[in-house]
Amino acid sequence: MAKVYAMIADGSEEVECLAVVDVLRRSGIETVLVSIEKDRRVVSSHQIPIEADMTIAETDFSDADVIFLPGGLPGSERLSACEPLIKALERQRDAGKRISAICAAPGVVLGRHGFLEGKTATCFPGFEKDFKGATYTNQQGVVTDGIYTTGKGLGVALDLGLEIVKQLVGEEVAEDTRKKIQYC
């Protein structure tokens, strides 16, 4: 079974995170919500408390098919400053496994740390300034280039979730989930 670790921090954008988690779980993909904070409880960018499944100290990500990063501020900054997460992303990249991010996170996390070098990606407009050696596009809501899938922001969170489903378990499952949630 495919497995996704969805990261969350104090200040993460809750809908970007939870919409993707919801789509993945509806599609039968094991999806674990991981707090980078000291405990499982985080408070989102819009002051909504969320209880994660585990903390970052409770996993090594070795069984991850995808590590997903939501946007939001200051959540993206907190993810970017989280050394264990950056190390996990490096291991994920080096193993040729997928990484996904949306909104501010493609720039603030992946771009700043050089993960997107030589790739085409998207993000919330303005955060492309952090892309190191990457090509920014605003022509698509969701962009996949190699192992990286990036999204512009909240408005494409369902699209991003469905793209990850397609990558992990196929177009048929993604289409079935799209129909079940009445997404046009």
UniProtKB/TrEMBL annotation:
Instruction: Give start and end of each DJ-1/PfpI domain.
Output: 3-167
Question: What is this protein identified as?
Answer: DJ-1/PfpI family protein
> Which Gene Ontology terms of cellular component type are present?
cytoplasm
